[in-house]
Specification:
With 245 residues, the chain is an alpha/beta fold. The chain contains nine helices and ten strands. It has helices at 11-25, 35-44, 61-71, 86-94, 107-143, 163-169, 174-177, 182-185, 188-204; strands at residues 3-7, 28-32, 49-53, 77-81, 99-102, 148-152, 158-161, 208-214, 217-228, 232-244. α2 packs parallel to α3 (61-71).
């Protein structure tokens, strides 16, 4: 179940909001009237999103948001403000809030908007975290290979290379070679043939297997098309050294 932390110094609103979100949206809501206590609760428990009032006696919602962001920069944060506090909403968004909702108005409409915002933000945050985890797992897997592995963008500049590929290039860490072309990275004898095979993969959008030589070393090269934003195509590759003569 999705867990929410709601901070507000209005006890009646805390109770009403918790009941509605539980019964109508099936959300598990922990509440507190104190931002200081809220920060402690955040450190001691795991929450999927935070809702916070702005006008509170200890610290206001903006300061609370700043302290939350020092602890967790990704957890969805919704500011629950009074009517006519647009300047507060703008300041909150500038400091990393994800959404703001005005308290005043028809309660059912307000709570429906609140639950919809929570569900949307939580789904988005989970998707982003899963994508980040998947990327980390993929990088760890590729870096464990003894074969060389790389990804090039549609412009055929390097996007990623595993540890083995970076060692082969001998041009420094990944951040030093990302965005550079084969002309700047590969031995001169490999540049022309590698560009031809890259262009063939992009044009045909089909995998290609070839054999390349660099000095006395022979490599078995597998290249394949990779999707990029805007319908564009890049190139991925796995290179296995066959012999060193």
């Amino acid at each position: 179940m999705t867990r929410i932390l709601y901070i507000d110094d209005e006890s009646a609103l805390l109770t009403l909001t918790r009941i509605y979100l539980k019964e109508e949206a099936d959300l598990d809501v922990d509440t507190s009237s104190s931002p200081v206590e809220g920060l402690k609760m955040l450190r001691e428990s795991s929450y999927d999103a935070i809702i916070s009032d702005y006008d509170m006696p200890e610290i206001d919602g903006i300061e609370f948001l700043k302290q939350v962001r020092e602890y967790d920069c990704s957890i969805p944060f919704i500011v629950f403000t009074g009517k006519g506090r647009e300047e507060v909403a703008i300041e909150a968004l500038n400091h990393g809030a994800d959404f703001y909702i005005q308290k005043e108005g028809d309660p059912r409409t307000i709570f429906t908007e609140l639950s919809n915002a929570i569900n949307h933000l939580v789904r988005r945050n989970h998707a982003e975290r899963n994508a980040t985890l998947t990327e980390q797992q993929l990088r760890a897997f590729l870096d464990s290979l003894t074969d060389l592995a790389f990804i090039k963008g549609p412009d055929l500049t390097l996007v990623y290379g595993n540890h083995a590929y970076l060692a082969f290039l001998d041009k420094g860490p990944l951040e030093m070679v990302v965005g550079r072309s084969d002309e700047a990275l590969l031995p001169p004898g490999l540049v022309a043939s590698c560009r031809r095979s890259d262009e063939a993969v992009i044009e045909s959008r089909r995998a290609l297997i070839s054999e390349e030589k660099a000095g006395n070393r022979t490599f078995h090269v597998q290249k394949f098309p990779l999707p990029f934003p805007g319908g564009k195509t890049g190139v991925g590759g796995i290179i296995h050294e066959i012999s060193r003569g």
